[in-house]
Design brief:
Length: 515
Amino acid sequence: MIEDISKKIAWLKNQPVILKDIFRGIERETLRIEKNGNFSNTKHPYLLGSSLTHKWITTDFSENLLEFITPTSNSINYLLNFLNNLHSFVAYNIQHERMWPFSIPYLYDKSTTIKIAQYGNSRLGKIKSLYRKGLKNRYGDLVNTISGIHYNFSLPKIFWKNRKKYEKNSDYISCGYLNLIRNYYRFGWVITYLFGASPAISKHFLKNKKHEFKENIENILYLPWSTSLRLSDIGYTKTPITELNIMFNDLKSYIESLHKAINTPSKKFSDIGIKNKKGEFLQLNTNILQMESELYTLIRPKRKTNPGESLLEALGKRGIEYVEIRSLDINPFSSIGINKKQILILDLFLIWCALINAPKMNKENFLVNNKNWDKIILEGRKPNQKIYINSKYETKTLIEIGETIFQDLKKIAKILDDQSKNFEYQQACQETMLFFKNPELTYSAQFLKLIIKNGIKKTGLDLANKYHKQFINKFHYNSDKNILERETIRSHKKQKQIENNEILSKKTISPMLKI
């Protein structure tokens, strides 16, 4: 059963100021494509700055996989405006290309050229590229071009300070965030049900056909009730975190488990080898994880790092600072991949996850949680869909669980709206609650209906062209245009400085990294 948190909500209502400064950040990935829908095979455009050193515009796996990173802010409107301005700036500087509006790429065939992202000649740049080469050799290149939204979220310190009485550990902030993370594993599939938007995928992604797919003439496979195939074993590179014993129960064991994975050889990846017959490096190492960022999970604990400091070192010294939600598909109905309603619902849900008590997890609990995610990912909109509660033997319908959660969210929404003297959170709740009784309102249902009717290529290109036109029209009114132009210049200078400093100081790249 779901805990009754009426007392905790009353506690919030009596001191709403503790929710005043929620900080957020957004990272949006999108593929650069040619006007005909093909993958762009050009280098990262010079006019967008250095992908190594630019603060807000970089690349992810491939040269054509853009990543936009907003500053952190306690203003949702500022974040969305800045993200919009990033898109406008990029669109203006890639006039003959477009940005693909979906999480799942459209592929004509398996021979699509995918160029691994390059970051220059510095040691750091070579490590970043070799890490991506390792991802290709471990998991394949197509799967690494799938795009998503990462939502970074932190609650004010005063919130955790006032919640301290519920935590016995001295690092009550980290304990609180780990509680939130466990609850996201327990109930975060609600967000995927509502906002998942990848119910179809190219057949070229499939290694083996596990499910009874329907297929259209474009070699696009789909399941009638699916929400997010991006998160399934078809599209998402899942780290076997139960095998690594990563349970998010306490920070010390999390760090130790992740550190072990980074330093333990993998039989599977050892078979790939470090070098090929030509002497070219194939991956950073043969360990279970090449580095921390290869831990692919639905949500991760994070902390800003100091120069030369790893994430694990930062977490060990100063604890968890925020969480990164990684399970969000690109919203195809938003030009920037996410809209305000989603952010409002995410805020409410993550606050709820921080309030409700999350028991410590063992492997059995974790596997039950994963079964719930798989149910929603593959057949979330199925009529009378049931979800496991507490154990694999007790079930409730998705509608029952969803409406129970949203009864709490509505109360939290009123507290936040009273604080800011508007009705935004409550309105978002009212509109989104309808999705439970009417699955056709979900993003996945709307998206699937559209691509079945018009085809994924036409739908994608129509939206890409529509959004491109909007961004171009906005460019001359782009309030961040001058800032972004200056950052472009600065980033190129910074990359050259890094490379020149290595030459001047006669630093040598370790033999493993001479690629």
